[in-house]
Amino acid sequence: MKNYILQRLIISVITIFVLATVSFFLLRSLPGNPFQTETVLSVETEARMMAYYGLDKPLFEQYLTYLGNLLHGDLGYSLKYTNRTVNNMIASAFPISATLGLISLGVAVPIGLFLGIISARKRGKAVDYLCVFISVIGVSIPSFIMGSFLQYIFAVKLQLLPIAQWKGLKFMVLPTVALSLSLLATLTRVMRASMLEVINQDYIKTARAKGVPEDKVVLRHEIRNAMVPIVTMLGPMVASVLMGTFVIEKIFAIPGLGQHFVNSITGLDYTMTLGLTVFYGTFLVLANFIVDIAYGIIDPRIRIEK
Amino acid sequence: MAKRILEVKNMHFSFYTYAGEVHAVNGVSFYVDQGETLAIVGESGCGKSVTVQSIMKLTPTPPGKLKQGKIEYMGEDITHYTQKEISSMRGKEMSMIFQDPMTSLNPTMRIGHQIAEGILSHENISKEAAKQKAIEMLIKVGLPNPEKNFMSYPHQFSGGMRQRVMIAIALVCNPKILFADEPTTALDVTVQAQILELMNTLKREFKASVVLITHDLGVVAKTAQRIAVMYAGKIVETGTARDVFYDPKHPYTWGLLDSVPSTGAQSSRTLNSIEGSPPDLFCLPKGCSFAARCKYCMNICREIAPEETVMDNGHRASCWLLDCRAPSVPPQKRVSRVSKLDIKETAHVG
Description:
The complex is a heterodimer. Chain A is mostly helical. Chain A has helices spanning 2-28, 43-52, 59-71, 86-121, 126-140, 143-157, 169-199, 202-209, 214-242, 246-251, 258-266, 270-298. In chain B, the strands form 2 sheets. In chain B, strands 6-7-8-3-9-10-12-11 form an 8-stranded mixed β-sheet, with helices on both faces. Classes of the chains: A mainly alpha, B alpha/beta. The A-B interface holds A 201-203, 205-214, 216, 220-221, 224-225, 298-301 and B 53, 56, 58, 83-84, 87-92, 95-96, 98, 100, 103-109, 114, 117-118, 121-122, 153, 155, 166, 169-170, 173.
C-alpha cells in the first residue's frame, strides 16, 4: 500500500509538471499579449509593461522562472488585476465556489442515487417514468435557463429568496438548486443504468435463492455492486463542481472561481490561466487518487495488493 | 415408501413480452421423493430452468406468470405463496445451484460471508456461530484452508472452487430439496466428475433430494434414479433411469440417446443429431410439439397432441406410437448405441 501511494505520488507530480509545461507553451503560442486591449497603449508603455512582468525575456527563460516559482507554490501576479497574486485570488474565490459545490453535491448525490435506485427497481412503472423525466429535464435544460427561471419564480414573483449575490444562507438556496439539478440528473441516469445491469446478474438470483430478505438483497448485493460506475464518475465531478461553474456564478453574481476561468483566458492573463490550470489539475489528480482508493473498498477485484 | 417432498401438477408458465406470449412451460407434472435424484433432461430452451426457477419463484413476474398448476411441498400447497413467504423457505427448505459459477457469486462479498448470510437469514444465531458453521461447510465441500478461504473473494477462486462454494451456500441450511441447474455445464470435464461426486456424497449426508437439470446424458447416467425428458415446455417421457435408458418410448428420447457421442474404436465417424430445431415457443403447434422433427410422425401427430401413456413401473410417455393402433418401431431402429452409456445401478437412498 505504501509503495502504491508513493508510486501514485510520483506519477501525480509528473502529470502536473507535464500539464504546466504544455499549458505554458500552448498559452504562449496564442496570438496577442495581455496588454492589447480596447484602450490602445503606446508602444513604449506596452514595452514597459512587458518588461515589468518579465514577458520580454526569452520564452524558455520565462518558463524556467515559472517552474521555479511553481515549486514554491507561487503562481505569480495576475496580469489583469493590479497588485493581486494568483494565489491570493484563488484563496478568496475558491472557498465560495467550493461551498456552493459541496452543498450542491450534498443535495444531488443522495437524491440522485435514490432516484436511480427507485427508478431501476420499479422499471416500467410510473415512478420510473417520473425519475427518467426528471433526469432528462435536468440534463437537457441548460443551467442559465434553469437559473433565470428559478430567479423569476422565487425572487421576482414570490419574493421568497434573494435574486442574486452571496451573503448568507438564504442566498445559497437558488444557485444550489440550479446546480444540483443538473448533477442529480446525471447521477440518476448513471445509477439507474448501473442498477439495471446488476439486477439481472446471476449473483442476485443466488442471493434470493438462499433466502436473503429483499431489503438486504437490494442493500448488500445490488447497490454495492452498482456503485462502481458512480464512484468513477464522482471523482472528476467533484473536482469540476468545486472549481465553480461559470454560468451559475455569473447568473447569481457569485464571486467564485468560475468567472476567472473564462475571463483569464479571454484576457490572456497568462499567470492566472496557468495558475488555475495547475490548481484544477492538482485537484483532479487528487480526486482520482481518492477514487482509486475508494474502488478498492467497494470492489475487491480492483483492490491494490498490499 | 419414501416420503414425497415435492409435487408439481400441470404447471403452465408464460412470459409476456412485447412480441407476444412465450409459452415456456406447458403442463409439466413431476414429483420428487425423499433422497432421490430426478434428472430433467432436454435441449436448451425447452423450459427446464424456468420450471425449477418458478417453483422457487425466482423468475421475474412480470414478465413471467404462472398461469396454471399446483406446486406442493411436503403436502402443503405453495403455489400462491408471496415472495416473502417463499423467501423464508428458500435456502432452508429448497435451494438452488446455478449453471455458471463464474457469475453466480457476488464479486464484492467475501466467500465466507456469502455462506454465512444464508445461515443468518434463517437461523437466529450469532455471527460467530454462523461463521463457524460456514467454515465447517467449506471443509465439507472440500475446500482446503477454510479460515483463509472464508476471507477470500470469488475472483480468487477457480470455476470448480466457486461451484463448491455454491454447493456450500445451497446446503448450509440443510434443505430438503436441491435444484441443480446444469451445475457442471460450465466446468472442465475433469472438474465435472468431482463436482458430481461431491453433490452425490453431500446429498446422502444431508438426506436431501436433488432435481438435476442437464442436457448431458452422461451426467444423468451417473447420478439420477429417475429421469424426466422435457421438450418444448412439456415432459414427454418420464420413468426410472433404467427404463428411460434401456427401454425408451418417445422418439425424442431415442434421438437424445443417439446423439451422445461415443469414443469407442468401432464407433461411427459422424455425430448423430436430431434434425431441425425446437418449435417457436411464441406459437406452439396444435399437435405434438415434436412432430416436425420426428422420423415416425403420423397424420394424427400434427393434429392432436398425444395423451400420456402409462406403462408399468411409473414409466410414462406422450407419443402416438404407443397407441395400440400405431405401427410398431423395432427396438434396434430406435437407438443404435445405448450400451456406450455407462449406466450403473444407483442405490435408492431414502
